[in-house]
Input
Amino acid sequence: MFDLSPIKILIIVVVILVVLGPDKLPEVARQAGQAWHSLKNLQSKIESEVRDAVPDLPSTSDIARMARNPVGLLNSLADRATAADEEATNAAAAAAHEAPVGAGSPEGESEPQPEILVEPDSIVDLPPRASQVIPPRRATTDVATAPPDASLN
Output
């Protein structure tokens, strides 16, 4: 967003020094530091109150990582959902095979139990991975390097 090179920073410092003067500069820097410190304290207070209200909230660094890479977050959620679906399917298949034989008849005779064939894809439509849904970003060209439009002539 801001492309601050060392030369630009030096120019900003010189302009601030000229505008404020060497007498007021330490006072203004002290006030800016106090304002920054009070903002950080306010942020930590708000964060602690939110964490008290929502204890299962991920850490701040996890939230920042998720915001920087939403496709990765969606892929991990899709992987978790796929794993949960496979576990549920396997548990249902195991429970169907472990059913007691002849438990329903009073004489103890076994009734033929139909065999249940469970295929994971037939039960639940699995969510697609985010990389399959969201197209990758294309590189944008700079206006100065783009070829001129022939229709403008």
Observations:
- The first helix runs from residue 6 to 53.
- Helices lie at 6-53, 60-68, 70-97, 120-123, 130-133.
